[in-house]
Structure to design on (129 residues):
C-alpha cells in the first residue's frame, strides 16, 4: 500500500499510520494492529540501535539526545509501561509476542536501574536487533 515513514515517523499525506492503525489491535487475521502513538521513530533518529553492539545500544538508550530527553526513571517507565512498547507482548492474531514474559522483563529492567544502569563492556557482537 506504499506506506511511507514521513519526517515524523507517522506516515505521509492522507496515509498516516493512524488512517489504518488505531490505539488497539483490530480483531482478526491480517487486520491492522494498534497501540497509542503508533508509528516509527522520526527520520532524524531512525532505528538508531540497528547494528550496534549491546554496549552501544545500552549507552544510546541512556543518552537524552537519543532517547527523547528521558532521564533514567523516564526511560524505565518507557520500557516497562509505555503502551506502544507493551504492544510487543500483545501484538495481535498471527504475530509472535516478545518471548520473555513481561513481568520478567520488568523485574530485569528494575534490577538494572537499581544497580545504576550499568552498560556491558564493548564486544564485537552486534545486537540481534
Ligand atoms: C493503508 C493502511 C495502512 C497504513 C497507512 C499503515 N499500515 Fe501498518 N498495517 C496495515 C495492515 C492491514 C497491517 C496488517 C498486515 C497483516 O497482518 O498481514 C499492518 C501491519 C503493521 C505492522 C505489523 C507488521 C507485522 O509484522 O505483522 C506494523 C509494525 C505496522 N503496520 C506499522 C505501520 C506504521 C509505522 C505505519 C505508518 C508509517 C503504518 N503501519 C501505516 C495497514 C496500514
Amino acid at each position: 500500500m506504499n506506506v511511507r515513514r514521513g519526517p515524523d515517523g507517522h506516515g505521509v499525506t492522507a496515509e498516516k499510520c493512524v488512517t489504518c492503525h488505531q490505539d488497539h489491535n483490530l480483531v482478526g487475521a491480517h487486520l491492522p494492529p494498534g497501540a497509542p502513538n503508533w508509528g516509527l521513530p522520526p527520520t532524524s533518529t531512525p532505528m538508531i540501535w540497528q547494528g550496534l553492539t549491546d554496549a552501544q545500544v545500552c549507552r544510546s538508550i541512556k543518552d537524552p539526545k537519543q532517547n527523547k530527553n528521558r532521564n533514567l526513571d523516564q526511560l524505565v517507565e518507557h520500557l516497562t509501561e509505555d503502551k506502544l512498547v507493551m504492544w510487543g507482548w500483545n501484538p495481535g492474531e498471527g504475530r509472535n509476542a516478545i518471548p520473555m514474559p513481561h513481568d520478567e522483563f520488568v523485574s530485569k529492567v528494575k534490577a538494572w536501574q537499581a544497580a545504576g544502569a550499568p552498560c556491558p563492556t564493548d564486544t564485537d557482537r552486534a545486537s540481534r536487533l
Q: What stands out?
A: The two ends are 25 Å apart (CA to CA). The mean pLDDT is 91.
